[in-house]
Structures are given as C-alpha cells and as structure tokens.
C-alpha cells in the first residue's frame, strides 16, 4: 500500500529538524504549567483503573513518555520519525520507544489503558481524523482514556484551519468538532482545558487539552 503523502512529508521534516526540536521542545513543555496540567489527571485515572500500558503517540524525543513514567504510569513512545526515536532512546534509556504510525499502532485490540497524543494529531489532515480516532478506539480497553492536545480553532462554520508549523504543515482544530468526532468513534469526552490565546506567545492560538474515555 502506498503511504499517504502527508506521512512521508511529516517524517522527512521531523527527521531533519529532530536535533533542534529535541533541544527546545522538552524545555518549553516543562516551563509551562498549563502545558502539562491535564497529564497528572490522565495518569491518576490510569492508576486508579489498575494501571496498564499507555502509548505516547507522536512521542518525539520522549520527554512526555518519561514524564508519564515519573507519574507511575507504564508508558512507551511511538513516533513516525526514526531520528526522533533514536534521540528518545538516547535520552531515556530503559524506556521503550519504537518507530510506528499512530493511525496503525502495532498493538492488540483493547490492550491499552491509555493513549496520549500531545500535539501529534495536528499533522493529520481533517479528513483523516476519523480513521485516527477509530484506531485509538481499537487499541483502548473499555474504560481506557485518551488525552489529546492541539492548537484550537474557534470558527462558526469551519472545523479546522491549516497553519505554518515551521516543521511541517499542520492544522488547528475546533475542540467541539474534535469531541464530536471522538464520540462518533466511541470515545466520550470527560473534560477539557482550553488555554486563552494570550497564553501562546508565539502565534496567539488557544490551546486545547481534551480528555476522553472509551465507552463500554
């Protein structure tokens, strides 16, 4: 099967930018409390359900996978960029990292307690989101949790807007639209945090953090 062009382009872009990305992004993540505000909640829900395996999809250099581990969650990382995975393995030895696609995860059905996708759905074209969410539903056990973070878009008629991400073409999404697509995929919204545009000094975009649960 021929790989979609957006995957090929995104992989090549992140392979090229991997070293610079790994130097800057983890520091930005840890510097902003709102960047990680929902992750401890996500981790507590995983632990309360009896632990279980969690996939950090689009893990990049592995900083969030490692953060999840520090919160007592058995997490592993997946990224489409081999260069990113190499950096993650070097920075966090002992944690499992593997090259893969979030739309075709190499795990059994209903085998994960959680999936975290921190700004990794943003490179997925709008028409591809339903199949990505269907894959998240497939791999999550009933009652398992999904945490998404993405640049948000608020428009009365348009659910998404493309923007220049500097690394690769990206999209910001309406949180309501994302929640609707999740529900159609069998993932019901539990909570959301939307940060005001002024909290983003780079582009002035609101930032959405959306927590959902796989229905029985």
Describe the structure.
With 216 residues, the chain is α/β, with parallel strands linked by helices. It has a single domain (5-214), classed as Vaccinia Virus protein VP39 (Rossmann fold, 3-Layer(aba) Sandwich), CATH 3.40.50.150. It contains 6 helices and 9 strands; from the N terminus they run ααβαβαββαβββαββ. The protein has helices at 5-31, 39-48, 63-70, 82-91, 129-139, 175-184, and strands at residues 53-57, 74-79, 97-99, 112-118, 140-151, 160-163, 170-173, 187-195, 207-214. The strands form 2 sheets. The chain has a 7-stranded mixed β-sheet, sandwiched between helices. The protein has a two-stranded antiparallel ribbon with strand order 6-7. Helix 1 packs parallel to helix 4 and helix 5 (129-139) crosses helix 6. The longest helix is centred in the N-terminal third of the chain and has 27 residues, at 5-31. It is globular and about 40 Å long. The termini are far apart. The mean pLDDT is 94.
């Amino acid at each position: 099967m021929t790989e979609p062009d957006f995957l090929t382009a995104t992989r090549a872009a992140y392979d090229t930018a991997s070293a610079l990305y790994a130097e800057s992004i983890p520091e930005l993540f840890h510097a902003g409390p709102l960047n990680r505000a929902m992750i401890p909640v996500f981790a507590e829900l995983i632990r309360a359900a009896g632990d279980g395996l969690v996939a950090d999809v689009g893990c990049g250099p592995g900083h969030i996978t490692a953060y999840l581990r520090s919160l007592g969650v058995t997490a592993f990382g997946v990224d489409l960029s081999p260069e990113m995975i190499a950096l993650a393995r070097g920075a966090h030895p002992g944690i499992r990292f593997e090259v893969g696609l979030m739309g075709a995860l190499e795990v059994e059905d209903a085998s994960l307690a959680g999936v975290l996708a921190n700004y990794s759905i943003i490179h997925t074209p709008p028409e591809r989101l339903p199949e990505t969410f269907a894959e998240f539903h497939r791999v999550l056990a009933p009652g398992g949790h999904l945490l998404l973070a993405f640049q948000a878009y608020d428009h009365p008629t348009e659910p998404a807007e493309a923007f220049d991400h500097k690394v690769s073409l990206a999209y910001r999404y309406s949180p309501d639209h994302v929640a609707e697509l999740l529900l159609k995929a069998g993932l019901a919204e539990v909570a959301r945090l939307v940060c005001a545009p002024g909290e983003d000094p780079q582009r002035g975009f609101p930032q959405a953090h959306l927590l959902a649960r796989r229905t029985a």
